[in-house]
Amino acid sequence: MSWLYDWWIDLAQALGLGEAFQYPFVARGVVAILVLAPLLGGLSHLVVARRLAFFSTTLGQAALTGLVIGVAAGEPLDGTYTAILGFCLLVGIIMVYVRRQTTLPPDTVIGVFMAFTLGLGICLLVAATRRFNIHQIEAVMFGSVLTITDRDLVLLLALGGALGIVVAVGYNVLLQDSLSPPIARAGGAPTAVIDYGFVVVLTIAITVSLKVIGALLVEAMVVVPAAAARNLARSTRGYLAWSIAIAAVAGLAGLFISTAWRVPTGGAIVLALSVCFFVTLPIGRLLR
Amino acid sequence: MDAAVHLDRVTIHRDARAVVRDVSLTIAAGSIHIVVGPNGAGKSTLLSAVLGQTAFAGDIQLTFRRSGRIAYVPQAFVADKTLPITIGEFLALSRQSWPVCFGIRPAARARIAAILDRVGLPGMAHRRIAELSGGELRRVLIGNALDPAPELLLCDEPSTGLDHDAVVQLDKLLTGLRDDHGTTVLMVSHDRDQVRRIADKVSVLDGALKRTGSADEVFATSEPALREIA
Lengths: 288, 230
Description:
The complex is a heterodimer of chains A (about 290) and B (about 230). Chain A is mostly helical and about 290 residues long. Chain A has 13 helices and no strands. Chain A is about 80% helix and about 0% strand. In chain A, helix 2 (about 25-50) runs parallel beside helix 7 (about 150-180), helix 3 (about 55-70) crosses helix 4 (about 80-100) and helix 4 runs antiparallel to helix 5. The interface between A and B is medium-sized, with 28 and 35 residues.
């Protein structure tokens, strides 16, 4: 990875960025954002189309609970992927199953799961902080570029690429199922597989993004880019392009704010995303 | 007579209440079979069960001899209509394997133009779904179901929101599918005139199946379930 750091330092110097921006961890953060933007930004327009915004919030909270379970089970704080992924997948799949089986409104079912994961997470967190300093968990809760390792970056690149290919291959059927499940089903689409499959993809994407965005804020990255893009887009193609562009711009802006003012990366990215949404809102009205 | 759809003692419950009770029905291949009945009679629910969207007791058998393609025109488009998707992109979803978010391929573009011509919406591929009237959206959904010609077409009140000319055009499209491609059409309708014009067989449903026959036979009866049919 040394070539990457050298390239970044040369670029930062050429752009006249201060010394704080010339460290390898900032280079790792930039690469992470450039991978996360198409991944989460791209997924975000499908999340909104499938009305899974609230669902994603619950997955983010489940990630916090998964983190604490991992720590309690003896996993290192900077390598709790297994517990987070396992718990989020379990919660996500059960949520889809219950939502498909019951006649209750989907937001009611998701609300129940959100309460459960949050309650469990808080209880376990209090127990875990007797063994760890709360500040050690803070980075995973709110995100920090300082904690990204070369291993995280390789994992992010590999999984991000694989998920991107999976979503691209299944994109048309996924969007058709989002628009009208009966039409998709009549055309032979396996709607149950799509329902569960998308949640698995979303869960993996959220898990690999946690170190940058943080467990409590990751849902913003899979909802706000699409919400802002919707103000500007006139077609599906534009919707995807705007979602990715907004995720990238807000991600890089958040990373730079976080580096310059030493605030949590996740929080800074979410603030930048929110600004994008509120700026595009009146623009969208003018365009219509 | 070859059966395309055979229902054997089909019962469908919703919230512990049987909305469709013990329905046995055979629909001939290459025919237009229309189900009529009052609101809440279970017509759409029955169609949904044939589609495999709704759980049921009993047996439903679909028999295919050609493509096996099923197409569906829903009564309501449940999607979020404000999604930024154009008519062309919507129709391209099932007409190309290339992800629609990366653009529409030339071959799909030509097919989409032909579909829109058939349903009376020429040159509207760039219009957004959100901008369409109820009637225009229904035409898009009908167009989506017509190409390629399905072996079984399920239509849930497809003439809702259409003006008279558009309904006549729809009749031609449906009879054309039956006559030229041998498509079996199973349809729910509230339009007595349309039923008389195109139905080979009519079934009256009011929870249970009340009667099946030709349109003239069915409408000649004083069946109470037919009072709401315009």
